[in-house]
């Protein structure tokens, strides 16, 4: 049975008129880049000197200011956990398409997603499928079949370990920004308020594949995202200084990027940068992203004056993003929440 979602059939009109509808890519790809690589050994393992720990923290803050992205090694998430997560993810996506659609009955409505239902032109289309799972839904149940029990268990193990890493990284970045320790993230970001997204990017046979996004340009609507990506197949790209860079895969590293909430909380010091995924014409690509989010009623407020952004709740931000995507086909994001926002 067919495992791929019917992307070609659903979007055949957009694909047939791609030359007419597809604008120029938002930035020229100039080179493959190596993201700042940070060794967390002094922070994760015992025995690091105070000087080594401070150097690690400073490198992390600098990367968050200059790139909005960095890689971490010796991060405390074991290869066994990562390998298990990848195996179970592949098994979940290799189920027949009709069966994957039924997964909404196993978790919550909207868990399994594919394509972009609101796309009106090719640059709004995401050539991908995903399981977007609130961590509150990651529970093993005797009513699940073997595939779902095993996958849910792997997700829970992966997410629990990555949640600890996210708390540690967020706390370090808060400390470097404020000049003192803060309990903000411990108080407002619990594992139950976070999300996990398993992604699969099927091969895109429509030439040129680079003109079809696996995931269209966007910023993340959280504090931090921790990404475990395919260590062989590239595709992740980010914008820096107006230029687009292809991120070189590193099999030993997890990728961390700053989200919109951290940019607002840090008053623009830490950067939530635009990124995207481009398709590959021949091979599929997998990734798993952990989104470090607060509770819906958490208020996001810049930590210094004059403030660039007005105070807003995470719920308000999510609702505005969803409204914009529905009406405009794209996310507006933080521009709506500046003190002098011009959007109505």
UniProtKB/TrEMBL annotation:
InterPro entries assigned to the protein according to its UniProt record, in alphabetical order: DIOX_N, IPNS-like_FE2OG_OXY, IPNS-like_sf, Iron_ascorbate_oxido_reductase, Oxoglu/Fe-dep_dioxygenase_dom
Keywords attached to this entry: Iron, Metal-binding, Oxidoreductase
Record bears the keyword Metal-binding: yes
Residue span(s) of domain Fe2OG dioxygenase: 192-294
Superkingdom of origin: Eukaryota
Protease among keywords: no
GO molecular function terms attached to this record: metal ion binding; oxidoreductase activity
Family recorded in the similarity comment: Belongs to the iron/ascorbate-dependent oxidoreductase family.
Protein name: Fe2OG dioxygenase domain-containing protein
Organism: Linum tenue
């Amino acid at each position: 049975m067919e495992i791929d979602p019917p992307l070609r059939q659903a979007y055949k009109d957009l694909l047939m008129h791609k030359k007419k509808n597809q604008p120029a890519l938002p930035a020229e790809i100039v080179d493959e880049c190596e993201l700042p690589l940070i060794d967390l050994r002094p922070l994760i393992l015992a025995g690091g000197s105070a000087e080594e720990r401070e150097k690690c923290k400073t490198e992390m803050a600098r990367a968050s200011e200059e790139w909005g992205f960095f890689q971490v090694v010796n991060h405390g998430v074991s290869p066994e956990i990562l390998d298990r997560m990848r195996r179970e993810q592949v098994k979940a996506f290799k189920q027949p398409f009709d069966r994957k659609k039924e997964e909404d009955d196993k978790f919550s409505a909207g868990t399994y997603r594919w394509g972009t239902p609101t796309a009106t032109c090719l640059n709004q289309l995401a050539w991908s499928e995903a399981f977007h799972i609130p961590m509150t839904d990651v529970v093993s149940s005797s009513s699940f079949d073997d595939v779902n029990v095993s996958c849910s268990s792997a997700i829970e193990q992966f997410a629990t370990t990555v949640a600890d890493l996210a708390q540690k990284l967020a706390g370090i970045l808060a400390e470097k920004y404020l000049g003192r320790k803060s309990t903000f993230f411990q108080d407002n970001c619990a594992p139950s308020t976070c999300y996990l997204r398993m992604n699969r990017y099927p091969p895109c046979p429509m030439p040129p594949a680079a003109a079809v996004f696996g995931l269209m340009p966007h910023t993340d609507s959280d504090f931090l995202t921790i990404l475990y990506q395919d260590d062989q197949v590239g595709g992740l790209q980010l914008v820096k200084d107006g230029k687009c860079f292809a991120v070189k895969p590193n099999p030993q590293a997890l990728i961390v990027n700053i989200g919109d909430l951290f940019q607002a909380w840090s008053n623009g010091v830490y950067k939530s940068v635009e990124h995207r995924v481009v398709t590959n014409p021949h091979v599929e690509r997998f990734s798993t992203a952990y989104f470090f989010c607060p509770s819906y009623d958490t208020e996001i407020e810049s930590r210094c004056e004059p403030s660039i952004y007005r105070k807003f709740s995470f719920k308000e931000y999510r609702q505005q993003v969803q409204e914009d995507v529905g009406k405009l086909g794209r996310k507006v994001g933080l521009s709506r929440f500046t003190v002098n926002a011009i959007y109505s």
